[in-house]
Amino acid sequence: MKGESYMLKNVNFTEKPEEDELKARLKAAREKLAALQMQIKEHKIPVLVLVEGWGTAGKGSLIGQMIQNIDPRFFKVATMDSPTEEESRKPFLCRHFAKIPEAGKFMFLDSGWMDEVVRTRVHGEMDQKIYEQRIDSIRRFERQLTDNGYLVMKFFCHISEKEQKKRIEGLLDDIDTRWRVSENDKWQNKHYEKCLSVFDRYLEDTNTPSAPWYIIDARSRKWAALQALETLTQGIEIALQNQSLAVPLLQNVFPLVKMPKLSEIALDLAIEESEYKEELDKLQNQLKELHNRLYRKKVPVVIVYEGWDAAGKGGNIKRITEALDPRGFEVHPIASPEPHEKARHYLWRFWTRLPKTGHIAIFDRSWYGRVMVERLEGFCSENDWKRAYNEMNEFEKELHDWGAVIIKFWVQIDKDTQLERFTDRQNTPEKRWKITDEDWRNREKWDAYEMAVNEMIQKTSTSYAPWHILESVDKKYARIKALKIVIEELQKVL
């Protein structure tokens, strides 16, 4: 944690301009934002505006002032209340990540991850360790967004204790505005100094060069709107200038497990039919029993399958799901992203598919497409895929810290086996749907893919989410091995 430095306690606001100047500047800022909004759309920059602050400081009306001149087709406004029961069974950042805007659009959030953290912190429901973990998550989340081309603008609406008290009393005096004062607003004013310290600490901890905090003097509605609009337009202009710059790559800070190269893996492992049937039966029963315990203890599980085309991922997944209660798992077949998914951070479609606690999510292909198919087919820039190793390690660290069991399989076969299976699919009418022109095309790039997969496995096999190689020339052998690994990992956590 940083040394003491108070953003709110030591804030020096500039003098509020005279009424005429205020009106003129406000008009100019609104017109400028309307013009910049077209450039945002054209350059496909997603803009996330987070408005936090004291209760009754006018967060809602500030957002109302900011959106006045923006085309309503290109922005959304969301109020982030306390998490629902369903939301609290997902990772802390999940509901916030789900709200990020599409490229070329704005998202205005009335409170968000700051409010969620400081509220639990100020009421003594979060210890220092969890608080520090949350801060790390938030800093990574905001950095990942800005690294991936998002403009993140964070405003804090500040008023004094006296001003807040006056506003609360004014709202309570009128029968039509009474509903706007929450119990939390009253509690805040009563414990103003305590809240001020927690706010200050949080602002200091999450004030970064790529997503800094802007403290808004919220004593006057028009003046607050002018500060926010001028800052927002300035932020957009800088984002437009920075768009073509490469993002610095970060060093890996996560503990890695040493992995073999694909060429070093023996593929002659096999199992007899009778032994396979016996083992399959025994292991599936074991997994069934573990799934019940998992559900009871609310442990989330994420299983990832990557591998060569025709390596046997589908059959492997089937042998695992046969042992599970259908109400407690979901399989996500991942194809190329839909337009609305492509328009967001590439991890968005995975954040929004995470399981609830006690449930299992199985990904048939995953976020690792970023460093394989997207890398090799040129669907993202070199800077994008090189940054992705670290981003995916961070994503899995979030899942691990949340309490999830992460199991990652690479299903390995050789080139000859693949050719045999492709030919079989081509020549068998009921299997023909399984083979596409793209499969043949990818096959031609086998060596390039192998190099990319080796790099991926070396750089993302962390101690909390290691890769497991399934030797799948004998599919039955691979299925039994996968079941054993899943059982072993679940037993560890249970």
Q: How does the SSE layout of this entry go?
A:
Layout: H1 19-42, E1 47-53, H2 59-67, E2 75-79, H3 94-97, E3 106-110, H4 113-122, H5 128-147, E4 151-158, H6 161-173, H7 183-190, H8 192-205, E5 213-217, H9 221-242, H10 273-296, E6 301-307, H11 313-321, E7 329-333, H12 339-342, H13 348-351, E8 360-364, H14 373-376, H15 382-402, E9 405-412, H16 415-427, H17 437-444, H18 446-460, E10 467-471, H19 475-493
Parallel strand pairs: 1-3, 1-4, 2-3, 4-5, 6-8, 6-9, 7-8, 9-10
Describe this structure in words.
- A five-stranded parallel sheet has the order 2-3-1-4-5, sandwiched between helices.
- The protein is α/β, with parallel strands linked by helices.
- The longest helix is centred in the first third of the chain and has 24 residues, at 19-42.
- The mean pLDDT is 96.
- It has two domains: 19-242, Rossmann fold; 262-493, Rossmann fold, CATH 3.40.50.300.
- The chain has helices at 19-42, 59-67, 94-97, 113-122, 128-147, 161-173, 183-190, 192-205, 221-242, 273-296, 313-321, 339-342, 348-351, 373-376, 382-402, 415-427, 437-444, 446-460, 475-493; strands at 47-53, 75-79, 106-110, 151-158, 213-217, 301-307, 329-333, 360-364, 405-412, 467-471.
